[in-house]
Structures are given as C-alpha cells and as structure tokens.
Amino acid sequence: MARGVDRSDSTRMKTNSASTANDIGNTQDHPQTQKLEEKSRPYKRSISRRSFLGKSLAVGAGTVGAGFFINTRTARASGGLTPGDAALLRFPAALEILEADFWIQYNELAGIQDSEVPGGSGNPAYHDALAVLDEDMDQYIHDNTEDEITHHQFLNAYLASKGMPTVNLGPFRTLHGSTATGSSGKLRLTNLTKLTLDTSWWTRYRDPNHNPDLDPTFVFPQAVPSLHVGRHTAIPRTNADTTNANFLQAIANTAGFHFATVEQGGNSLYPSLAQRATHEEVIRILISIGPTETMHFQTWQDKAGNAPPLTATDPVTGVSVTFPNLDVSNPLLKKNLIMPEPCPFLSRSLPPCSIIRPTKTEGAAMGALRFLTAMGLFFGQSQAFFAFMIQLAQAADAA
Known about the structure:
Layout: H1 49-54, H2 83-110, H3 124-131, H4 137-161, H5 201-204, H6 245-274, H7 280-304, E1 310-313, E2 320-323, H8 364-374, H9 383-397
Antiparallel strand pairs: 1-2
C-alpha cells in the first residue's frame, strides 16, 4: 500500500456475551470494570465512562436500538465473506480509526508533519519532553500514526470490495482536543486528557509463572501505580501546560506509557480474532496486521522504560503522578527486559513458551472495548457512539 494517505475515515458505512476475565489489556482491578451489571443514571446528552462500563457493555443485542445492529443471523454472505468474517474485520477497522485519531493528535504536537501524515505544526516544548524518552520519538510517532491510518483504510476498502458494510465514525467526531500550539484544533473521536492507564502489561510480559489466559484472577502489579488512579493528560491541553518543565515531562511520560498500553491491546486482539475467522483472506489479513501491532508494542515498551523518575501534580485537577525508577534488579520491573518471558501456555503440563498473551478468543472484542473505555479514551463521547461500538464488538464476538 502506498505510504501517502489522507486522514478521512475511508469509505462510508452502508448500515447505520460479556467478555471473559481475560480482557485485552487485562483490565484487572479497575473499579468500573467490576460493576458491569450495575444500572446507571438515565441518559441525557452523553454517557459517562462509568455509566458505559456499568450498563452499556451489558446491553443485549435486542435492546440497543434499531439502526445500530447488523443482523448477522439473517444477513447473506457476500463476496465470499460470511457475516461473521466481515464482522471480524469491521470491529478492527473501527478500532484502527480510533487509534489513528489519537495518534494524529500526538503527531500534530510531537511527530513529523508531512504529506504522509499532514496536520498540525508541532509543539517544540512537548516534542522535546518526549525526546527525553528517545531522540527519534518524532519519527516513531509519525510512522505509528501512518500505520494505523493505512490499517483502517485497507480494512474498509477490503470490506467494500466484497460488497460488505464498512465503518464510518465521522458523525462521532465531537470531542475537543488540545488548544496548545501545534494542534490543528479539529474535533476528535478520542480524549487524551483524562486517561487512567493500566500498566500491568509491563509485569505480565515479564512474569514467568502466570498467564492471564490460565490465571484470569491473578493480579499483575502495575509498573506505574499512580497512572492507574485518577485521570491524567498525555498531551498539553493548553500552552499553560508547557510552562512547568517537571509537569510537562510528566505529560510526556504519560504519553510514553499510553503508547505501549494501547499497542499491547492490538498485539493480543488480532490473534484472538483470527482464531474465529473462516475465510482464508480474512485469516491472512488478521495475522498480517496483528504483528505490526506487536512491533509497535515492542518499540513503545522500550521507550516507556526511559521515562525519567519524577513526581508531579496537575495544576488543573490536583491529581498527582509518580514515575518510579525502573532501572532496577527486580525482573518484574527491570526496564530492559522487553522480550516476552516464557510462561505457561495452553496447559501447565507443557513446557513454558514465549508467547503473546492473552490470546483466548472468547469475548476478545468486548474485552478490548471495555479496556479502552476504562482507560478514559472515550471520555465525553455520546451514547450513540457507545451503542455503535458495542454492536461491532458483539458481532465480532458472535462470529
């Protein structure tokens, strides 16, 4: 595929099981995710993250409402794809659109703005704070952004070529992002200013004794516990956020861990979904895109380990964050142990194996959606957005 791309949501959409404990990203301990069956307050203009996690993920296919669900039982196979195979591509297409949206925000402020990833003009202070993690961060951000754009454009184009419905999230671009120097100021799909990050993936990949597929209740320690509490911004919200060097570095550190947190989710999602596919090309697509997410994850976990130790308090929210020194001897935390430690796989009667984890397929799509929602990535989004994403996730999990 050509490297030059535009930033649209590609082709337009033709149609307007709760997850297992092994959610993609392993959203253990999160108070919102433990209350999926709670009833939430009545919907007004939008739905909160708590309300979505407490209610919407438990909504059945028959209750979300007409216009959002594709009837996979009665839809005819088209172009050689079953409705299930199409659903297994449509859900990742939506996630790739969402990923491209937040990566574009990062690229506008701290990446390379060019014809491949246009938009924004760069924020020198934020760019330099991210460069503390690696001097090539701007190039990596640019390339990761371009990758995600090509993913959703390819998936939508492939679906369209088979006469299947595609995904368009354009109507949900309602969120305001950064107003700091460098931002294009365009409306967004995702929110990078109120993140709660689960960094347990750090120890999950270094633990030789536990696998979330085999140990769904095991609690993997957080690499940065304070990021798992409260809401943190990963981009400067305004120019005021760039005036305090210590706080700006905390914002950059948060971004560094957010990069890896999201990419490790795709790292597990694609092989999980591929196990449900029946069409040869759909399997090929899923197992070809998936490894690129793994390459992203490997890069970003290495860079996250370079986040300088510090403590900072957000002058707007009062939320504090502490980034510990990860240059330690403890193998669960040591920053340069970025190769997956061999762990139990399939059965403890078999020898340990270095693997992607988790990869159980049951509830994988809903688990990924719940994980991203718990992160705060969709804070401020509408009920219609959540209902549409539930539809896509449920269809993929039903494939």
